[in-house]
Amino acid sequence: MILVCFPWAAGSSTIFTPWHNNPSLKTVFSSVVCIDYPGRASQSDKEPIDHIHPLVQSILDEYECFSRNKQEQVVLFGHSFGGIVAFEVARCLEERGMQPKAVFVSASAPPSKTPLVQTAVSKLSADEICDYFSSKGNPVSEILRSTPELMDMFIQNVRVDYMCLETYPASSFQLKAPLVVIGGELDPGVSMEDLENWSRHTLLDRSSLQEEKKDEEVSTTLEHLLTKVYPNQGHFYLNDETIKSDLANFISETVLSLQSNVAANEDVEDKEAAEMMKHVQTAFAKALGNDSAENSPDAHFFNELGGTSLDTMILTAHFQGAIGMRITQNEIILHPTLNSLSERIMKLRKLSSNAPTLDPMESVDGQWYPASPGQEQMVALFDTAPTMYNMPTTVEFHGNVEPEILEQAMLHVTKQQEGLRTVVKFDMVSSCR
Description:
The protein is an alpha/beta fold. It has helices at residues 23-26, 52-62, 81-95, 126-135, 142-145, 148-166, 192-196, 241-288, 311-322, 329-334, 338-354, 373-384, 403-416, 426-429; strands at residues 2-6, 31-34, 74-79, 102-106, 179-184, 226-230. It starts with a strand and ends with a helix.
C-alpha cells in the first residue's frame, strides 16, 4: 500500500517529510508519496492551476501511484485544502474503478458546504493574506516576509489555491472507500458540525469501520464517522511534531483495523451466503419434489428444472417460515436460479435492515359506506388467504434519502388518490362474514 499526502493551501510537501521514516507507517505502507501542487518544489516547472478539477487531473496524470497499471492500493490523506483535493482524487479514482483503500481528511470543510471559505482570500492584498494566516494560527515567518522573491511566490500560491476553493462547485458525491475525519477542537474555520457533515459523503456506516479508541485524545462525539478530534487544537495542528507523529500512528492503526474488519466481514458474508444457498436449495427441492437443483446452481427453475408458477407459492411459503421474509413471485421469476435468487434475497435482507422507519400515519376521517358484494367477497378471501392480493416490492434509492420528505411525498400522493384513502372497517361488514 502507498500513503499519498496532500498539503494545505500554499503549503509544501515538506510538512510530511517526517512521515517518510516513521516506523509505524513503515509497517503498513511500502512508501509515502507527498504531493506538490503545480508551481511548487518538484512541480516548479508547471503552471499553477486555479480550479480544482484541472488541478486534480494534473495530479492524476503526473504521479505514477495513480496509474491504472499500479498494483498497490492507495490511502489518501489531505489537510485543509488538501482534504478537498484528496476527496476529489478519490472521486476520480472510484469513477475509474480504482477505489482507494481509505481516505483521511484533516481540518477540512466538507465538499457540500457552500462556500467552502467565508473570506475571498484570493482577492486580499499581501498584508491582508499574512493577517489572515495569523488569525488561523499559522503566522507567516519573518524570513519569508523579508525575502521579496519568496514572499511573492507565497502570495501567488495562496491566491491560486484559494481560488480553487472559492470556485469549487459543491459536491454531493458519496465515496465507497472508508472515510476518516480528523480535526482540531478549536479550529476557527472548520467546526464540529463541518466535520460531522462529512457523513454525507460516504456510503459506509461508522459501524462498518473500527470502533474509536477511547483515550484522552480521541473525541467520540460525532456519531456517523470514524473521527479523531484533537482537544485544544486549532487549524494547523500538523505544525506540532508530537501530533504529527501521533497522527501517523493513528493512520497506521486505522488502516490495519480496516484490513482486519474487511477480512472478517468477508468471512461473515461468505457464511451467510452459504446458509442462504442452503435455504434456497431446500425450497427448490420442496417445490420440485426432488434434489435436481442441488448440483445445478445456475439451472433455470422454470426452463430447465420444470418448475411452474404454482410451484413458486411453495417457495414463497418456505421462505416465509425459514427466514421470515416474504419473497414475491415476481422476484422468483426475475431470479430463477439458485445463485441469482440467493444473491437477491441477501440484497433484499440488507435493504430491509437499513430502511428508515416512518412514523405511523394519522387516521383519515371521511365518508363511510356499506361494503359492496365484491368487497364482501374480498373480506372472506382475506380470512383464508390474507396475502393473496398483496404484491409487495422493493424500491432501491441511491444517495441520501430524507425520511421526512419521503413521508410527505407519500402523504401527498395519498391525498390526491381517493382509492388510496379507502379502508374497510370490519365491524361494519361482520354480519356478512
